[in-house]
């Protein structure tokens, strides 16, 4: 029998906020500049990067590009590009980002219930996540010490699907993975949560077409989703499917 759920761990990009397309739009130009400098003829649009690298941070994407095109960036140069990309993306998010439909209403209801503690567990840099949460009017629910970044919170930066950031978040929160529920929208994020032993709700509402939503529902279900959520209005029923007794959850301490 599953332990009582006390903590909800949310992915950020395209789970709480509609940020992925904006982020990849901002980093496509920089990625193409890097490829050009390495003598690689291929070029990417933001949409192509999104298809190939959704759920990964820019460092993880650059690691994959190096492997794909057989080149190597010195650590100092890699770090420089990661910093440049972060600035470009944050500028774009501050201009155009909006929350996922229905997310703020659910967050507000859960926050006011006092039943759960919240955290964000993301591949994106902490500064970028905080900029997204502020722009989407979600920062009230997630103070900076409840935002965990695979890119910047760990001693050794990584990216989902590595489970390290989820395990790190659980350690810092002082909670067992089985007492948490994760909410994820991507293959890499879902894999990260499942590998960490955390029951996972798959959110597919940010995908643009019914066909893509159904495809991702099947994909994330195969990875190990305990429930699939097409709309944030379904969140409480998905918590029940994930093994959480919604009406009976323990009162958590203040966020």
UniProtKB/TrEMBL annotation:
SUPFAM superfamilies reported for this sequence: HAD-like
UniProt-listed InterPro entries: CbbY-like, HAD-like_sf, HAD-SF_hydro_IA, HAD_2, HAD_sf, PGP-like_dom2
One Pfam family here: HAD_2
GO molecular function annotations of the record: phosphatase activity
Name of the featured protein: Uncharacterized protein
